[in-house]
Amino acid sequence: MSKDLMRAIQYSKYGGGAAALKHVEVPIPTPKKDEVLIKVEAAGINPIDWKIQKGIARPFLPRKFPFIPGTDVAGEIIKVGPGVKNFKVGDKVVAVLGNGGGLAEFAVAKEGSTVARPSEVSAVEAAALPIAGLAAHQSLTKAAGVKLDGSGQQVNILITAASGGVGQYAVQLAKLGNTHVTATCGARNIDLVKSLGADEVLDYKTPDGAALKSPSGLKYDVVIHCTTGIPWSTFEPNLSSNGKVVDTTPGVSTLMSVAVKKLTCSKKQLIPVFTDPKKENLEYLVKLVQEEKLKPVIDSKHPLSKAEDAWAKSIDGHATGKIIVEP
Ligand SMILES: NC(=O)c1ccc[n+]([C@@H]2O[C@H](COP(=O)([O-])OP(=O)(O)OC[C@H]3O[C@@H](n4cnc5c(N)ncnc54)[C@H](OP(=O)(O)O)[C@@H]3O)[C@@H](O)[C@H]2O)c1
């Protein structure tokens, strides 16, 4: 391969899933003024990556075809744009890519979306953090008002799909706050979710699990909802009088329910979350991993040459933790 080319994964139209991913050789991108060029050591897959392929962000993303997907990357900086102030060649980093590009040997990231990665945090752990970790962090702090330093009032939290990419972080972060955590997951992940700190765990395929009933009879002040397909009527009887459901996967029905609750002045609230990838929050998560207060759970690692397996696994919806691709 020419030294100016890199291996990457691309798709050229909406739809098609893993079968539509192509292995290509394309020019290594050049960082603009405020960008860094990263030699990718690990990339994390998120459901948003294949939802973009399905057309969820049309017409904004992809901005054009062919498109290299991938939002979360960790690696080493090998070139910096002329306006970059805080990074230099050789720095180990983790970044959130606003316009894809992660499933490749090299990727450009905005300096403002790039965070230093200390030596204690591996590339795989770092690549597992951004979108899922930031979604969990924002849901708990900004949307639900939980103070992760434990200085707030004790609250009872339910976390759905606690074995998934977002849920595993939500459980661990919630336990840093002053919270009692009930979590749902499949039977095979109950021990794992307990080991992340959950106080009680429900198998979502049992009648009580499907009804979200706390084994100890608690009502939830906050629900961090990390999957789809659970209607408001299932949450409602389990909420305390001012309970909030924070929905990380808001669809049309969520937005309609939010409007109805506003109109009827309901005390029980439904709050949609759209992750705002704030640099300081990613720095906070990296620091927690460095201090061993947060441990990313890794479902599986796949070489770039088999990226379609990682893509198909994410679409399948049964990952335990994060799916990683390594160039
Ligand atoms: N709003 C935002 O900005 C934002 C950011 C990140 C993610 N998200 C969204 O959040 C959702 C979760 O993302 P993710 O990365 O955590 O997904 P994920 O890793 O693919 O979730 C898979 C896990 O969910 C479990 N699960 C599925 N249905 C469940 C149910 N009804 N009850 C309990 N567990 C269930 C599965 O367990 P089994 O294998 O046992 O079935 C599996 O372990 C996605 O829809 C994603 O698009 C939104």
UniProtKB/TrEMBL annotation:
Coiled coil: none annotated. InterPro entries: ADH-like_N, Chloroplast_QOR, ER, GroES-like_sf, NAD(P)-bd_dom_sf. It holds the Pfam family ADH_zinc_N_2. SUPFAM superfamilies: GroES-like, NAD(P)-binding Rossmann-fold domains. It comes from the Eukaryota. Residues 16-325 form the Enoyl reductase (ER) domain. GO terms for molecular function: oxidoreductase activity. Signal peptide: none annotated. This is Chloroplast envelope quinone oxidoreductase homolog. It comes from Durio zibethinus (Durian).
